[in-house]
């Protein structure tokens, strides 16, 4: 059984648990979802989700609880992470905001709340590298990916990158857990995981 950690200090946690269960079922894999609120949990996880929410709060609590070092070790060990929206902000190399201590898991810099300024929240069909059909992407006060260093761009919207991969880490500006479509969780985890349950 795979152990999936969902960072649960703040944000839309249960939706990610449901999404990972759907993706696992589609791959015939058993998965146990655990919520991460304190240190000592991530080291046992095969994969990790960093949900949306409020990035200033998430980064503060992750640091206070000492989970930051464990997440870095998870990525250093080559284990997969999916970071969405505020999760992407926390995972980035720079958030251009001194209130957010980023974990530098992904070589991108982001601007909080800059994407989709004209419309706070919207849904758009997105062409994603590796998916045959467009993905229904839900954007909610999404971060703009301002600079892409060594990361690979998986999708763009209006010429701006909105999904990126850097080694075992996939980051999205949008919320793949808010639709019933498991393909982004699929892409982030089941196409990279080599551990057999
Ligand atoms: N605007 C939020 C932030 O900057 C992110 C929004 C979200 O996760 N839906 O932290």
UniProtKB/TrEMBL annotation:
InterPro entries: Class_I_gatase-like (IPR029062), PdxT/SNO (IPR002161). It catalyses: L-glutamine + H2O = L-glutamate + NH4(+); aldehydo-D-ribose 5-phosphate + D-glyceraldehyde 3-phosphate + L-glutamine = pyridoxal 5'-phosphate + L-glutamate + phosphate + 3 H2O + H(+). Its EC number is 4.3.3.6, 3.5.1.2. Gene3D superfamilies: 3.40.50.880. GO terms for biological process: L-glutamine catabolic process; pyridoxal phosphate biosynthetic process. It comes from the Archaea. Signal peptide: none annotated. Pathway: Cofactor biosynthesis; pyridoxal 5'-phosphate biosynthesis. Keywords: Glutamine amidotransferase, Hydrolase, Lyase, Pyridoxal phosphate. It holds the Pfam family SNO. One of its GO terms (molecular function) is glutaminase activity. L-glutamine binds at residues 53-55, 112, 140-141. The active site is at residues 85, 175, 177. In the presence of PdxS, forms a dodecamer of heterodimers. Only shows activity in the heterodimer. Catalyzes the hydrolysis of glutamine to glutamate and ammonia as part of the biosynthesis of pyridoxal 5'-phosphate. The resulting ammonia molecule is channeled to the active site of PdxS. Belongs to the glutaminase PdxT/SNO family. This is Pyridoxal 5'-phosphate synthase subunit PdxT. The gene is pdxT.
